[in-house]
Amino acid sequence: MDAFQGFLKFILNQKTVIGYSFMALLTVGGERLFSLVAFKCPCGTENVIYGLAFLFAPAWVLLILGFFLNNRSWRLFTGCCVNPRKIFPRGHNRRFFSVLGQIILSSLVAPVMWLSVALLNGTFYECAMSGTQSPRLLDLICKGKPEECWKELYKVSCGKTSMTPTDNEELKLSLQAQSQILGWFLICSASFFSLLTTCYARCRSKVSYLQLSFWKTYAQKEKEQLENTFVDYAKKLSERNLKCFLENKRPDVFPMPTFAAWEAASELHSFHQNRQHYSTLHRVVEDGLDLRPEDEETTMMLMGTAQNVQLTHHH
User: Fold this and answer.
1) What's the CA gap between 278 and 47, in Å, rounded?
2) In angstroms, rounded to a whole number, what is the distance separating the alpha carbons of residues 171 and 142?
3) Half-sphere exposure of 187 toward its Cβ, with a 13 Å CA cutoff?
4) Which of 12, 51, 259, 276 is deepest in the core (most CB within 10 A)?
5) 39 and 188 in one domain?
6) Residue 238, pLDDT score
7) Which residues, including other chains, have CB under 8 Å from residue 282's CB and lie 6 or more apart?
8) Which of 76, 64, 71 is nearest to 108 (CA)?
9) DSSP state, 163?
10) How would you write 36-99 as a 3-class SS string?
11) How many angstroms separate the CA atoms of 245 and 165, rounded?
């Protein structure tokens, strides 16, 4: 039993690595599936567009999904049209760009993985480059090759050129080698950039290594407790409302946070050394609602908006 608990703890501690590994496996599997089933190079004038579409379109979709599935994206942008100060609070204008940068970097992981795997495979790049009409690229690709290479490069992927099978295969291997070089360059660049950003963030950290570890643990536990408590409270409130409706009686008072409290607890968190709050919820609980004049105005505006929505539904 102790061995199983130790293994489970190890898995939980390494969930980030396991998650990225699982993402990498999905990326490799998806790329192979696209290459074998869906991808058919037309071997014509559409080679460039077709190859680039298969190379970059899935990466773009993965980037959009990364934004959609990142909770910080919605925490950052929810209500920003009604209250622009939520993303540009006074005295903390750079915080928006800092958080947005973190969201973009985390969303770029899957697209970079896709591009790396696709370039290492070389199929999409080979198709795209074989359709180029650029004199510079043609000179680079066909240098030292038979003269037919300049006129029939778009047929290389299909093996339908008038060149010998050996020359055709050498040309394909040359294009695949270029693709793999670009793939490894992308992997090395992304790894180095990730190291630089991590080192920069740690160098500018306002807390020590142990306190940062505690902060991460607290944030994870608070998130788990918050989700469980939401489910519990929503269940109790729905049961109370349903019971009062069926029994046709007035409901008992059910304690809930005020509208202003919900707004305050939904803000992005900024750490201050003189006030060691490890989350926005922690700050709201300990300090209460200390609204500035612009925040009070915003709260009234949002409450008025909510009342207008209710009146619209009523009519």
Assistant:
1) 53
2) 8
3) 14
4) 51
5) yes
6) 95
7) 222
8) 64
9) S
10) HHHCCCCCCCCHHHHHHHHHHHHHHHHHHHHHHHCHHHHHHHCCCCCCHHHCCCCCCHHHHHHH
11) 80
280 token code pair: 């926005």
Place of tokens 């992308």: 186
* Residue 242 φ/ψ, nearest 5 degrees: -65, -40
Q: Who's near 78: CB < 8 A, 6+ residues apart? A: 266
User: What CA–CA distances, in Å, run from 218 to 193, 200, 224?
Assistant: 28, 23, 10
Asked whether the beta carbons of 127 and 157 are under 8 A apart, the reply is yes
Residue 253's domain comprises 214-314
Q: Last residue of a domain, which of 172, 203, 234? A: 203
159: left (phi over 0), alpha (psi -120 to 50) or beta: left
Instruction: Please check whether residues 24 and 170 belong to one and the same domain.
Output: yes
Q: What is the DSSP string of 254-308?
A: -----HHHHHHHTSPP--BTTB--SSHHHHHHHH-----HHHHHHHHHHHHHHHH
Spacing of C-alpha 82 from chain mean position? 25
Q: How many domains does the chain have?
A: 2
Residue 150 shares a structural domain with residue 239: no
What's residue 224's pLDDT? 92
Q: How far apart are CA 259 and CA 295, in angstroms?
A: 12
CB 207 within 8 A of CB 215: yes
Same domain, 68 and 196: yes
| Residues 237, 176 share a domain | no
* Shared domain check, 237 and 89: no
Average pLDDT per 10 consecutive residues for the chain, totaling 315 residues: 48 53 70 74 89 93 90 84 73 76 89 92 91 87 84 83 85 92 95 92 87 89 93 94 92 88 80 78 82 42 39 40
Query: What pTM value is reported for the model?
Result: 0.77
